[in-house]
Amino acid sequence: RATMKSLRFISAEALVSNAELARKSLSSVAHNLFPLLFKASYLLEQGEVIHDLVENWPFVDFNVGKLLGTTVDCQEDLSHRTCSVCLESCLTGLRDYVLNHSSPYMKKLKVVDLTGIKDVEVQVCECKKTMGRWARTQLLSKLCLELLVYLQQRQCYPGIFGISIDVRIDLFVTEQNYELVTQALLKKCYCPLKICCVAFRTDNLALQKFFYIIKLVDPSLLRKLEVVHNVRLEMEHLEMLFSSIHFPLLMSLTLPARTFNVRRFTSTDEQMLTNIGEKMGEMTQLTELSMSFSILTGRIQKLLSPLKTPLKMLDVSNCSLNHADMTYLANSFHANHLEALDLSGHNIPDLYPSIFFKLLSHSSSVLRILTLEDCNIQDTHVNMLIVSLSPCQKLEEFRFLGNPLTSQALKHLFMFLCELPMLKNVEFPVPKDCYPIGITYPIDDASLCRFDHQKYESVAEELNLILLQANREDVKTSTPLFGSYDAAVQETKNELGAYLIKSFKETLEKFTSSLNETS
């Protein structure tokens, strides 16, 4: 797809396309052209030129997201290109900026911001090799430690010890890179490159290690905390975390599955839940909360009412919410501010249709993303769904996988979806009539792929034709059978897979051992 480029940008592309010439010419290039040359080099994947540009960066800040975003000279946004060649060149260039013997008076760089890089499913860079968030965490930590070793072993120019550059990054830590990242954070004060963690994600990590590293990242600067999947953080651990550490700037919190389970609550647990709610109330910046696959029946109000700032994003998928929970949500001050809402795994049509309608009507002026997967929405409920969605004129994404809807009902729904002016992305289920008769919902993983693929393709074509006839080819449609793409999970799937196999093996051994003891 052609994008608008200025004559300046086309000239910059021509220069950097000859890497040898561009590198020789840098010393005579005006400083105000460096951002232009950087984006042109990134677009053409000229790693050596990128390295030299960063090594000689003439400004106080180096913000990758802004440099690669839409600019006057080139409208194409490259911030979603996590090209391995380009990003590695950026980071090694940064290391060499510190080691470069040019006059310390020439070195102005104080802040590097890597947080604007977006990890997406489809990469359009030619090398097709990505450097995801985990790999960026790994490489930056490695370079910081290498830099320290170099400073200890070599005779360095005096000015190097006066260099202090804050590197803002979204860290992603698992068991596999834990030791490396921990060492880099522990020695941060001695390194010219200072890792400044803005967002922290952890998966597949022992609780003890999580509690240790979270203190090292400087929680006072943290804006986003994601504790996911294979971190066994339960409610008592969460209370301990919030009691011992303050997160004054935290805007987004994601908790792992089964953090809460009200079915086994005691009076002590009730008090613990109250304490957690109060601690979250002290986080005045908190606007995004995800706590899927916890059992929170009847406790949503206790957890959310202490919050002083309205939530903009709420994920309570598969949380076993009851009528009282939904009533609280619909009537709370959060409802008028919700931009993203996930209610997956709740039987909305049967349990609380009118309350759901009220909740959507309250959030309709701002709601952009709605997820209703596995909600038992059937053909008879489509008209109710259309009425509920009608006020949501700002809706951009609608996901409703796993609902027992026939192809006829989907066509009816798509006729309506064409009318939502801001809609960009729709994830719809495989039609019920593509599966064998008698299929039960929710469909188990083993049966998920056992449908008439030819019939599905035919229905998908018809649905896209409905959009096309309404001049809505801007709307992307898909049926990701196993859920939406998650860049972080995709990047660490080998490690997570190995962990799951190990856990399964250990469970099997314990079971066999207990059987042997009883026999």
From TrEMBL:
This is Leucine-rich repeat-containing protein 14B. It comes from the Eukaryota. Belongs to the PRAME family. LRRC14 subfamily. GO terms for cellular component: cytoplasm. Signal peptide: none annotated. SUPFAM superfamilies: RNI-like (SSF52047). The gene is Lrrc14b. Gene3D superfamilies: Ribonuclease Inhibitor. PANTHER family: LEUCINE-RICH REPEAT-CONTAINING PROTEIN 14B, SIMILAR TO PREFERENTIALLY EXPRESSED ANTIGEN IN MELANOMA-LIKE 3. It comes from Nycticryphes semicollaris. Keywords: Leucine-rich repeat, Repeat.
